[in-house]
Task: inverse folding
């Protein structure tokens, strides 16, 4: 009876060790502070940790004001599973190729979304583009999707694209069983997965005045 107990205990301990080891090998699960699974990559396969570190991709020096190429204030709406936001943001592009969307809440900065060289950081969480895009958009996604929407580019190779009067471009198509609606016109971009509710809206910010009649609002199709 004692031998059976010892044998069973040994099997249980071995199983626990195997589970623990496999957990540590999964970078999306190893970060206990990050329930969304967006993680900090420490290195590229086959490279040293210094070469692949996030700090080597995003540096404070490249974000200095003299390195800005374009800077525009936007009204941003993000409705995704890991991240939700609806307020103003400043969209900057830099000489290094960095794209930075600085987010504000009640006129105070709360962090940023940064994109560069295949990497993406959402506030303090960083990863390669593809894992974050999958967390944001689900199965209907690809690595550059968020950046393509920010800059009002065609998505999914222009699938289902139609251009109407006034330069309004609409892509309405089905992908992997989900219905996608994507609208672009001057000053306004809207992406919506009609099946899951995932939505990204980008509007130009126009300061309100008593006589210009402009309203800053996002038009989300029902």
Result:
């Amino acid at each position: 009876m004692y031998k059976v107990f010892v044998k069973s205990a040994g099997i249980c301990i071995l199983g626990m060790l195997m589970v623990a080891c496999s957990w540590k090998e999964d970078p999306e699960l190893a970060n206990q502070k990050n329930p969304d699974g967006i993680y900090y990559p420490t290195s590229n396969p086959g490279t040293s940790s210094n070469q692949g570190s996030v700090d080597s991709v995003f540096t404070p020096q490249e974000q200095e004001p003299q390195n800005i190429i374009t800077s525009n204030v936007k009204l941003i709406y993000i409705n995704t599973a890991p991240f939700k936001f609806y307020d103003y943001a400043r969209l900057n592009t830099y000489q290094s190729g960095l794209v930075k969307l600085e987010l504000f809440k009640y006129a105070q900065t709360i962090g940023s979304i940064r994109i560069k060289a295949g990497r993406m950081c959402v506030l303090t969480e960083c990863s390669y583009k593809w894992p974050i895009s999958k967390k944001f958009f689900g199965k209907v996604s690809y690595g550059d999707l968020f950046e393509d929407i920010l800059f009002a580019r065609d998505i999914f190779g222009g699938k289902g694209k139609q251009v109407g009067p006034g330069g309004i471009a609409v892509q309405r198509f089905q992908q992997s069983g989900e219905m996608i609606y994507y609208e672009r016109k001057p000053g306004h971009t809207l992406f919506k997965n009609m099946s899951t509710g995932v939505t990204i809206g980008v509007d130009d910010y126009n300061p309100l005045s008593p006589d210009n009649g402009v309203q800053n609002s996002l038009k989300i199709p029902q």
User: Anything to note?
Assistant: The CA atoms of residues 140 and 175 lie 7 Å apart. The chain has a mean pLDDT of 78. The longest helix spans residues 2-25. DSSP finds six helices and eleven strands in the chain.
